[in-house]
Amino acid sequence: MFEVEIEHAFRITGRGYVIVGEVLARETVLRNGDFLRIRENEEQTVQVKAIEMVNFGSRTPTFNKIGLFVGLSEEESKALVGKHLYKNEEE
What's the rounded Cα separation, in Å, for the pair 39 and 83? Predict the structure, then answer.
């Protein structure tokens, strides 16, 4: 399983929105094009368009934070803050 808790959402000019979170589980590989399910509403999915390695708020690198470029609107992206997104191994 791969699981991330979303902490921030921000816009990259000319590209769209990135959601940033802390990786909670990384037993499976996450790839561009994969779909993540929202734990609170498993019917809803979010497609990962690109994976961004983010490093903000600290002068030392941390590898437990990940940014996911998603094709969502500002409202949809910001609504994910505080939610858990996951991918099972068989998906």
Answer: 7
